[in-house]
Amino acid sequence: MGKIQEFEITFDKNKVVYSPGDSISGTLKFKVTQSMPCKAIKLNCNGFCGVTTKANDTDWSVEEQYFNSTVSVAEKGTLKPGDQSFPFKFLIPAVAPTSFEGTYGKIIYRVRAFVDTPRFTKDFKTEKPFYLLTLLNLNDVPEIRGPNVSAVTREFTYLLVKSGSIVLKAESDMRGYTPGQVIKLAVNIHNQSGKTTSMVVASLMQKVSYETKKPTHDLRAIAEVEGSPVKPGKEAEWTEQMIVPPLPQSSLVGCDLIKIEYYIKVNIKSPEVTLVLPIHIGNVSLDKKGTSKPTTTDSTSTPTPTPTSATDGEPNLPPRTAPKPAPRPNRASLHVPASAPPDDGGQGATGGGWPPYGEALPAKSYSQMGYLSPHTPVSPNSFSYAPGLTFPQNNRHSCGPIFSEGNANMPSPSPLILPPDYQSASYPNEAPPSYNQSFNT
């Protein structure tokens, strides 16, 4: 670098993330190999937003300045050979938007250093970025605690003369989420026609709007899940879960050039039916004060028989032990694959009174953020990239079986419950043993 080497800026404690109102301090260090004149050594701290109409371009069409402070740490003189060190300190304004980097715009914060030399002599400069985080508390967002429900009816014509309709309803468990939380989605499809629908697709969408003379909108699917088609005249329920990956917050308070929105889009391509559920992404999750978990009853429990008394006209026999209930058939086709782990209660997608609809529709494939192919079975551990998010290994099958294009990898039955031994019966001369007979044997 000529007469100056190791020209760099360091922050105290190597801190790179700050909040509005904080002070940022550090040191400018460089090494001079031989004496050189300088007019001044200056340090600058600034923050701004730049927006362009070309993807990944830094030739900003519109800019918005948040703060710009400059201090001079050395006046006109001669720099002697050796190591040079200049401390600095800046105050970040209390009102400044969160750092953001998008395709058509950025919110940038940085500290720059300049060594201003005399005319016809090379100037030296360097810079170091830092990041600003303004926490978005979802509890402060207006009207965020209401139900998040949407419904649409689509009438259409097929085979030129026949007509029908599709009733599509969707509901999410909350209106606001933080990265690492689970979105619980329930969709009801009523096919009031004689034509089978296409697959139903639910997507977590991000829309970023950049304000220029001609506004630019960047729309992308962050996560996507698919469910099976619905046959003619049938009504089906589809429940799904999605983990919210690390994402920028919904609101960039203080920025007028960039706007971020999130919503869940539920779509059936044939016939074309679409609805949306707006949601917010923040940093502080919603508190659940005033909400109670619905209580559930075990429908599989068998009531204990009441002993018959002698006054009923029957002999007073000793109480009999109730036979063990027969194992229920595996309703694999009525469960939904786990795109995300269950909540802390360990319940699956249908536990605790969720979803609000009836019979479930099986899902067929899954993809999120491009990390999984549609043919890859999903494990809760696949999403452990979220900060501080871990899942216990003992709940491997707590979310139901995993489907991949119709092939189910179902958990094996309990070794304590065996099916009847039909080979012991002399069929067709006699009927096979019942479940009760098998247990008694």
Gist of the model:
The protein has one helix at residues 435-440, and strands at residues 4-11, 17-18, 23-32, 36-38, 40-51, 62-74, 77-79, 82-91, 100-101, 105-116, 124-132, 148-158, 162-172, 176-177, 182-192, 200-210, 216-227, 235-243, 258-268, 273-281, 363-368, 402-404, 407-409. The protein has 441 residues and is mainly beta. Residues 285-357, 390-441 are annotated as: Disordered.
Protein architecture, described:
By secondary structure, the chain is mainly β. The protein folds into two domains: 4-132, Sandwich (Immunoglobulin-like), CATH 2.60.40; 136-287 and 331-411, Immunoglobulin-like (Sandwich). 1% of the residues lie in helices and 41% in strands. It contains one helix and 23 strands. The strands form six sheets. Strands 2, 5, 6, 9, 10 and 11 form a six-stranded mixed sheet that branches. Strands 14-20-19-16-17-21 form a six-stranded mixed sheet, with no helix packed on it. Strands 12-13-15-18 form a four-stranded antiparallel sheet, with no helix packed on it. Strand 9 and strand 10 (105-116) form a beta hairpin. Residues 290-354 and 364-429 have low confidence and may be disordered.
Key attributes of the depicted protein:
441 residues; 1 helix; six-stranded mixed beta sheet; mainly beta; 2 domains; Immunoglobulin-like
SS class: mainly beta
Overall shape: elongated
| Text of the CATH class of the largest domain | Mainly Beta
Distance between the termini: 90 Å
Order of helices and strands, N to C?
EEEEEEEEEEEEEEEEEEEEEEEH
